[in-house]
Amino acid sequence: MDLKSHAAxxxxxxxxxxxxGDDVYVEGVGGCGAPCAVVWYRCQGEELRPGSGPGGxxxxxxxxxxxxDADVFYHTTLIKCExxxxxxxxxxxxxxxxxxxxxxxxxxxxVVLLLGxxxxxxxxxxxxxxMNHYRLMQWLPDDGPTVFCTWAPEEVLATGGPASDLYPxxxxxxxxxLNFNPVRFSSSLPVEW
Length: 193
Hints:
By secondary structure, this protein is of the alpha/beta class. The chain has one domain (3-178): Uracil-DNA Glycosylase, subunit E (3-Layer(aba) Sandwich), CATH 3.40.470.10. The chain is 37% helix and 12% strand. The protein has helices at residues 3-14, 53-65, 90-107, 117-123, 131-134, 153-158, 167-178, and strands spanning 24-25, 36-40, 73-77, 81-82, 111-115, 146-150. Helix 1 runs antiparallel to helix 3.
C-alpha cells in the first residue's frame, strides 16, 4: 500500500461523509524512506497540515539553526480528522493511533519523535504520560523504528520559548534524536507498535 491509498482508506473509515467536504482527513507530509518521522498532536492555525501554526514555525526554525531542512522529515498528526474536539473519545483516538501506526509502517523511518504527552500516551498505549519521566526514553518495537518522546513545541512556546525552563531539555531531546546513535540510548520499556 502507498501513502495515497492509505490516506484514502483511513479517510473513508474515519469520515463516512468524507466526500461531503465538511470534514478533512489530515495527510502526512513528506515521502517514504524519510529517516525521521515526527508525530504532532493536531494541525494548528488555518493550514491543515502537520507542523503548521506557531508551534510548527518554532520547531522548524529551531531545526534550521542546526542545519536541518524540514524536507528530510516525514511529519504527521495523531488527530487525523479536522475539525475535531480538543480531546476526541477514546475509541476514536485508538482509530487515529492505528492509522498513524500503519502510516509509519509505509513510510519506514528509522526514528519516530512523538511530540507532547497526548501523542506519547496514545501512541505508547498509556492513559497519561509525565514528560519529565518519558522524555528521551527509547523504545525498540519489534520490526519498527526507534521511538522517542519530548514536549510539543507548543508547550515550549507557551512557557516562554527559548527563555522557557523546558527549552534546554527540549533542545537536548531534539539534538539527541537528530544525532541518533543506537548505542547511546537504551530502555527496558517495550512498546507494541
